[in-house]
Design a protein that fits this description.
The chain is mostly beta strands and about 90 residues long. It contains one helix and seven strands, in the order βββαββββ. The chain has one domain. The chain is globular, with a radius of gyration of 14 Å.
Length: about 90
Amino acid sequence: MATSNTSNEAKDSSVIVNGRERVIEVKEISFGEVLALAFSSVPDGPNWVFTVTYRRGEGNKPEGSMTYGSTVKVKKGMVFNVTATDKS
């Protein structure tokens, strides 16, 4: 028996993170999840600061920035730019 996607199920979405295509299976993505997609090994330590911006997003907020702990709804073709800065 085939099952159909309901509005609560996540579909595969192709997004761009730092110029690389990534396929994710979530309807919402967190700041930390975007960092994990951007870096094979996320820099760690007290002096690291991360900036996450996005565009081509969903609904009434198609572009913006993310902060630690925040989430955004995912839309196919969404673009994320992630930078890491060492404050030393």
